[in-house]
Write a structure and sequence with these properties.
The chain is mostly helical. It has two domains: 31 residues, no CATH class; 33 residues. The protein contains four helices and no strands. The longest helix has 17 residues.
Amino acid sequence: MVTLQLQEGEMSGQMGGVDTIRFLNQFSVGRGDYTKERDKWLADISLDDAIAQIKAEKINTLRGT
């Protein structure tokens, strides 16, 4: 076994399998092009609309709805 495999095995023993996977996934490269995808998501919303939505969500959270 290489050193990394030994460390992963020990980590899994200490943290458990699920938490080990969560930890290791933080360092994965990922897929896709976030910038292009974000441009598609935000194409139909202005900055003022986004701010209004955030404020509305905060109000709803404070009200408990």
